[in-house]
Amino acid sequence: MAFPVQVICRAFRTVGLVLLYYVFSIGITFYNKWLMKDFHYPLFMTLVHLALNFCLSALTRWGMQCWTGKPRIILGWTDYIYKVAPTAVATALDIGLSNWSFLFITISLYTMTKSSAVLFILFFSLVFKLEEPNPYLILVVLLISSGLFMFTFESTQFNLEGFTMVLMAAFIGGIRWTLTQVLMQKAELGLQNPVDTMYHLQPVMFLCLFPLFLYNEALSLSTSEKLFRASGPSPLLHSLFFLSIGGVLAFGLGFSEFLLVARTSSLTLSISGIFKEVCTLLLAAALMGDKMSMLNWLGFIVCLCGISLHVGLKTYYSKNKGPSLRQLSSKSPELELPLLRQNRDEREESPADDEDEEQEITLH
């Protein structure tokens, strides 16, 4: 009876982690869109999120250091500038453009367009030789591209400016995740833990977006009654409080993704991501009044087929080809980072040994 009980417990744990991931991922999408209706300063909002994430990651590192008694990694300036900074710049532009686009487009169009990031991740993973080319990738590209075209074709709520921002964010996101994978898989840097990675990325991300904020929003924000020209401390604290909620959601999203993959697998996260997009579109239509035609829904289905095919291919090749990153990790201190939707091999250990498996780290 012990085995069925253990299986049931693991199933409940997986469902709980998936729901936690959904709460933070879907929550931050709708929250940012809701906040942008009245607060038209997406770059300032992103800067607040970055500052809060840096504080939370620093606090978490301190707690981990007190708990384990081991000091956390701090990179030298050479490694920081040449290896961390490029990743931080790409990450800042991806997040900044994504938040900026909420001023112009619906959640439906944002979700669908951001899904095209898989194409750019594939492209840059081939450039950096992190993925082996195979003929099925052409079909994946065609499905996702045609699905995106069908979704945006004659859309009643289409906005070219917002669509361009999200598409640029998806393109930069391909660079971001590829560089992040390279960064976190270098054992000599010691950034396998996502908290350490977040701690090192946030300062450069803040400095990257700050000039754009000064150019686009600083003057308007300085005369806004929501912040700097508030009639009293109450409106100012009210604005900062709601901005901070988004920062907490962003920090929770990173942790929920890490926990989901560490306790289950990257395949679970990939499949959960597909259903998450479906839930996002359904909620956007029900709560936000997003309008979608039959052609738009068909395009979304075609795009999901392309993403699902990519996930299936990753699972197949990880089972039938040479040693995976996960297998190699048993011989080296490097941890697998399945950012490119790579999926680890089937677990051959018994249920009692599952708790001792190496952790996989995924940032989505």
From TrEMBL:
<feature type="transmembrane region" description="Helical">
    <location>
        <begin position="103"/>
        <end position="128"/>
    </location>
</feature>
<feature type="transmembrane region" description="Helical">
    <location>
        <begin position="267"/>
        <end position="288"/>
    </location>
</feature>
<protein>
    <submittedName>
        <fullName>Collagen alpha-1(XX) chain-like</fullName>
    </submittedName>
</protein>
<dbReference type="InterPro" id="IPR050186">
    <property type="entry name" value="TPT_transporter"/>
</dbReference>
<feature type="compositionally biased region" description="Acidic residues">
    <location>
        <begin position="351"/>
        <end position="364"/>
    </location>
</feature>
<feature type="transmembrane region" description="Helical">
    <location>
        <begin position="39"/>
        <end position="59"/>
    </location>
</feature>
<keyword id="KW-0176">Collagen</keyword>
<feature type="transmembrane region" description="Helical">
    <location>
        <begin position="294"/>
        <end position="317"/>
    </location>
</feature>
<keyword id="KW-0472">Membrane</keyword>
<feature type="transmembrane region" description="Helical">
    <location>
        <begin position="12"/>
        <end position="33"/>
    </location>
</feature>
<dbReference type="Pfam" id="PF03151">
    <property type="entry name" value="TPT"/>
</dbReference>
<dbReference type="GO" id="GO:0016020">
    <property type="term" value="C:membrane"/>
</dbReference>
<feature type="transmembrane region" description="Helical">
    <location>
        <begin position="135"/>
        <end position="153"/>
    </location>
</feature>
<dbReference type="InterPro" id="IPR004853">
    <property type="entry name" value="Sugar_P_trans_dom"/>
</dbReference>
<dbReference type="GO" id="GO:0005581">
    <property type="term" value="C:collagen trimer"/>
</dbReference>
<feature type="region of interest" description="Disordered">
    <location>
        <begin position="322"/>
        <end position="364"/>
    </location>
</feature>
<feature type="transmembrane region" description="Helical">
    <location>
        <begin position="236"/>
        <end position="255"/>
    </location>
</feature>
<feature type="compositionally biased region" description="Low complexity">
    <location>
        <begin position="328"/>
        <end position="340"/>
    </location>
</feature>
<feature type="transmembrane region" description="Helical">
    <location>
        <begin position="159"/>
        <end position="179"/>
    </location>
</feature>
<feature type="domain" description="Sugar phosphate transporter">
    <location>
        <begin position="16"/>
        <end position="309"/>
    </location>
</feature>
<keyword id="KW-0812">Transmembrane</keyword>
<keyword id="KW-1133">Transmembrane helix</keyword>
<feature type="transmembrane region" description="Helical">
    <location>
        <begin position="80"/>
        <end position="97"/>
    </location>
</feature>
<feature type="transmembrane region" description="Helical">
    <location>
        <begin position="199"/>
        <end position="216"/>
    </location>
</feature>
